[in-house]
Specification:
Number of domains: 3
CATH architecture of the largest domain: 2-Layer Sandwich
Helix content: 25-40%
Strand content: 15-25%
CATH topology of the largest domain: D-amino Acid Aminotransferase, Chain A, domain 1
CATH class of the largest domain: Alpha Beta
Strand order of the largest sheet: 13-12-9-10-11-14-15
Shape: globular
Distance between the termini: 59 Å
CATH superfamily of the largest domain: ATP-grasp fold, B domain
Length: 410
């Protein structure tokens, strides 16, 4: 007799582990992870199964192996749910949605919709159309790079970033001082940084933006789930009170406090998603401008993120959202919102206490730590052994040095 359903996850990083933990906590089953090589977040884990494939980072071979695994598992399970855990995995699943939807229960967005927001310049065009506020922005094309500094009419510091920092083109580009996001303090620094980028293989647009005033504690991330009919059924907001500062991951979140409320902000985001008929997980990066007293959106990520696990601990299980929608076809008249205030960390508690400079937020963080209302995605009591503890412990220790070397107070 066939079992009811099985989860297949693409990837083996923090995001993959967070989704695996969501699945294991709710359904007490192990998902199957498909990857090219196993990364440290899932190493020595007892809550996952792993299959590795050579050249799994090549589109055609990746899709071919996904279909082979899916057809094999169909013999033992009635329904299968596929969970891509990177932009690249999600993009190729959407490109091949017709063939994958014959095997898996997922109902993905059309590729034409993805193309309408996959890069920041296109996303900002959608923001204009649907009244989402974003920072003043200059789009710099390849042939405009040498004169880019002359177009800047707002004060320094400013932000410089690639059109899509997760694109294959940018990930494989190599140049001096490479970062996901650059905080530029002068015209000379802007010219020097663009000159360095020019020497690399990255030829897509660059984005120059007005700096939104305020430190990391003014950052906000909104995580959403839209069902297969395009209706928003769950939303959770976290104040991202500290970012990562290692250049290769700068801009990723290191500490988040989940919070209820923010109804007006939720309404604008849910309206945007339903207007474009979006399906599946999404998350939005925003920041509150302390001078203008407004929230500005930076981008939409078209999947759950590595920090999305905070949603689980604040009252909404991510795996359950998928199962209710794709397996049980549950209809939700009301949007689910989180009920618990917790602190999510991807760093040692010591680092959060030391580097969150806003005194009010620092006290809030210390109070949550004192009350033991803290969650670390990779630290799971039901998935502990000596090898895993050493691996994760070393990673956490390395974070202390990273902040000593790279932290900059904004």
């Amino acid at each position: 007799m066939k079992e009811e359903f099985k989860f297949i996850i693409l990837g083996s990083d923090d995001n993959a582990y967070g989704m695996s933990r969501s699945i294991y906590e709710k359904y007490h089953v192990k998902p199957l992870l498909l990857c090219n090589k196993q990364l440290y977040p899932t190493e020595y884990s007892k809550i996952v199964e792993i299959e590795k494939f050579e050249n799994f980072d090549k589109e055609e071979l990746c899709i071919e192996n996904i279909k082979k695994v899916g057809n094999r598992l169909k013999e033992s399970y009635n329904k299968l749910i596929l969970i891509p855990c990177s932009d690249w995995y999600m993009e190729i699943c959407i490109k091949h949605k017709k063939e994958l939807e014959l095997i898996f229960e997922n109902r993905w967005n059309d590729y034409s919709l993805l193309q309408s927001f996959i890069t920041k310049d296109k996303f900002y065009e959608l923001c204009e159309k649907y009244n989402l506020k974003y920072p003043k922005t200059i789009i710099v094309k390849l042939n405009e790079r040498k004169e880019a500094h002359t177009k800047v009419k707002f004060k320094y510091p400013i932000i410089l970033k690639p059109n899509n920092s997760n694109s294959s083109e940018y990930l494989h580009a190599s140049f001096e001082g490479k970062k996901k996001v650059f905080i530029i303090n002068s015209e000379e620094e802007l010219k020097r940084t663009i000159s360095n980028i020019d020497k690399s293989s990255y030829k897509d647009n660059l984005i120059i933006q007005e700096f939104v005033e305020g430190d990391d504690t003014n950052n906000v991330v909104i995580n959403c789930y839209s069902d297969k009919n395009g209706k928003v059924v769950a939303m959770a907001l976290g104040r991202a009170v500290l970012e990562e500062y290692l250049p290769s991951v700068m801009g990723n979140y290191a500490a988040i406090i989940s919070e209820p409320g923010y109804n007006d902000l939720f309404k604008s985001i849910s309206s945007f998603l339903e207007n474009i008929k979006y399906k599946g997980f999404s998350n939005f990066d925003l920041k509150y401008d302390i001078n203008k007293k407004e929230y500005f959106v930076f981008e939409i990520n078209y999947r759950q993120g590595r920090s999305s696990f905070f949603v689980n601990e604040s009252g909404i299980n991510l795996a359950e959202l998928l199962v209710d929608d794709l397996i049980y076809n549950k209809k939700n008249d009301k949007i689910k919102y989180p009920t618990e205030k917790i602190l999510w960390l991807n760093i040692p508690e010591y680092v959060a206490k030391k580097h969150i400079k806003n005194k009010k937020v620092n006290k809030e963080v210390r109070d949550l730590i004192k009350k033991k209302k803290v969650v670390h995605t990779l630290k799971y009591k039901k998935d502990t052994n000596i090898k895993r503890s050493i691996k994760i412990g070393r990673m956490y220790l390395s974070k202390i040095k990273q902040y000593m070397d790279y932290f900059v107070e904004k």
